[in-house]
Amino acid sequence: MSIAANRALTVAVLGTTQTLSWASSYYLPAILATPIAAEFDLSRATIFGIFSLALLLTAVLGPAAGRAIDQRGGRDVLAVSNLVFAAGLVMMGLAPGPLVFGLAWAVMGVAMAMGLYDAAFATLAGLYGKEARNSITGITLIAGFASTVGWPASALMEAEWGWRGTCFGWAALQVLVGLPLNRLLLPPVPPPAKAAAAAEAAGGPEPRFADMALLAFVLAAAGFSASALGAHLPGLLQAAGATAAAAVAAGALLGPAQVGARILEFGLLRNINPMVSARIAVLAHPLAVAVLLAGGAPVAAVFVLIHGAGNGMLTITRGTLPLALFGPVGYGRRQGLITAPARATQAFAPYFFGLLVDAYGAGSLLLTAALGLAALAALFVLKARPA
């Protein structure tokens, strides 16, 4: 098999297993929260609170998972993540009450640290070094449909088997599909000593803490806005004056806008500096907010398209910009450190932003727009620092 064909197979495998892992973890509560809350006599907010705590655990464990990928390669770590996902899902399906259910989500938090985008990006960095950019874009193109696939699949399983059967169904897919794909079809990475020797021959200083902190702030600010709007978009558009039907119709454009931007990145923008892509991506949200606040409900769809395009590009930037700035050696651990604040802000953003929407309506977007402009300024400061 040619080098290009091998790389295409790797992207296809990771895109497929990422779709499975996102669908059976991050996108699961949206469908199962209501029946679980009803059975355990809890509020939906409590279910999502447990999920938020799992995301915080993922943030804490991200650097350790990344370091394991740096040392052993992503193939084995991703394969183990499929087993941990399956264990958490089975535990959830068997949970007799809230305590065991919470412990099951703790296991899922471990699995998400080992098995979602950052782990896949680190795997590609270990395999292809600085040439991993297009491969990173490729897996986000495929896995960008995780909610499109996952939500209907979860709803269908829940209707047929109940929420517990849904957990068991996703666990079976992790073992029967995800595990063999990751373990048998992903190539091994070069030994760490060989990779380090290649990096030393290429030269380049160790990244400074200030540079990593600036990039961490950019991703945290962008992650807050993406998570907040992902949870409250229809209600926010209604607060801006749109009808319920118009808000849902405009909100449905979010997914296509994200995927369309990723296709643009994969095609026309694939050869431009990742810093330029990052600046375009973070500028998109403040621009979208300006359009909505100036035009109101009639431009709701335009707001969603601009915001969604920026958000779609930011997913790629999260993987490609650290690679371009700091190189592939030690990428996994460094990526875990850089993205930990973003994971934390994404965990609490829906709750906090919901309070702002209740109090200020569409005016709450001034906060996310300000965060976007601050992230843009940080990117210019980061670019000005010596490489």
Question: Which SSEs are present, and which pair or pack?
Answer:
Layout: H1 3-23, H2 29-40, H3 44-72, H4 74-94, H5 98-115, H6 117-128, H7 133-143, H8 146-185, H9 192-202, H10 209-239, H11 244-251, H12 254-266, H13 274-295, H14 300-326, H15 331-360, H16 365-384
Keywords: Membrane, Transmembrane, Transmembrane helix
Domain Major facilitator superfamily (MFS) profile: 10-387
Protein name: MFS transporter
Description:
The structure is a single chain. It is built from 16 helices and no strands. It has two domains: 3-199, MFS general substrate transporter like domains (Growth Hormone, Chain: A); 204-384, MFS general substrate transporter like domains (Growth Hormone, Chain: A, Up-down Bundle). It is an all-alpha fold. Helix 4 packs antiparallel against helix 5 (98-115), helix 4 (74-94) runs antiparallel to helix 6 and helix 7 packs antiparallel against helix 14. The protein starts with a helix and ends with a helix. Pfam families: MFS_1. Keywords: Membrane, Transmembrane, Transmembrane helix. This is MFS transporter. Residues 10-387 form the Major facilitator superfamily (MFS) profile domain.
Please outline what is shown here:
The chain has 387 residues and is mainly α.
